[in-house]
Amino acid sequence: MLNLNRVGYGAMQLAGPNAFGPPADPENAKAVLRRAVELGVDHLDTSDYYGPHVVNELIRAALHPYPEGLTIVTKVGYERTPDGDWVPAREPRQLRDAVHDNLRRLGLERLDVVNFRVTGPDDPESVEEPFTALAELREQGLIRDLGLSNAGVGQLDQARSIAPVVCVQNLYNVADRRDDELLDRTTAEGIAYVPFFPLGGFTPVQHDALEEVAGRHGATGRQVALAWLLHRAPNVLLIPGTSSARHLEENLASADLHLSEHDLAQLDTIG
Fold first, then answer.
1. Hey, which of 5, 30, 178, 223 would disulfide with 254, CB 3.0 to 4.6 Å?
2. Is the pLDDT of residue 265 over 70?
């Protein structure tokens, strides 16, 4: 399993709206990245299709040369059209190009972790060809570790028959627990599970139970939602995203929030 602090930082929101185009305030974006590292964040989640290219360029401008121990996790498998649409890019040639694009824009000779983004956990899509292409790049020394994003149990099995999988990054939060089976599977097999949209994504989780538990702890509902995920399983790593230094600090403080059995039982009424 990846040996990392349990709360990292997701950099997608540093780009413009819908992760497309530059941010309104690039200097603020770089300041948030630097603050994250100052506060002990040791893993960043990014992709060259955020922007596209914008977020990786911000990371390099803010943090390169990178501090020792910082893990940068990127994703491949999609591209952006000129009008911002997301389109699959899963051919071996496209994946090779994506890996080299990430290397070049991040200023790295080897990528720490590359997640292959699947269409969806309910899609029967085979990952054999694309994951084999990424495994070959790993053998060439261009990638240290491989993971999956938006994948199902069958795709995890297929990928693991090709190369080791160190993490799975899927949709999961206190209100959306459809991925319970895969989460439990990764826990049993020592694979890091990284929920994306841990706070609900474009429709943030809102529920009276969150606010009631938060009130008992002098915390926010967002912090409780993140703390619940950390309590859910020991292999859960978080990458909440924000373009605000204040929200960054609040998100990181969720790691210090200890929920009681009563709190957890109340939060279970949400999902």
1. 223
2. yes
8 A C-beta contact, residue 13 and residue 241: yes
Catalytic choice (49, 50, 172, 193): 50
Residue 253 CB-half CA count within 13 A: 15
pLDDT of 186 higher than 70: yes
| Cβ atoms 241, 59 nearer than 8 A | no
Is residue 1 very low, low, confident or very high in pLDDT (cuts 50, 70, 90)?
A: low
Answer yes or no: is pLDDT of 229 > 70.
yes
| C-alpha span between 118 and 197 (Å, rounded) | 16
Alpha helices in the chain (DSSP H): 26-38, 54-63, 92-106, 128-139, 153-160, 180-189, 208-217, 221-232, 245-253, 261-267
User: Burial of 27 by CB count in 10 Å (0-12 exposed, 13-18 middle, 19+ buried)?
Assistant: exposed
66 is catalytic: no
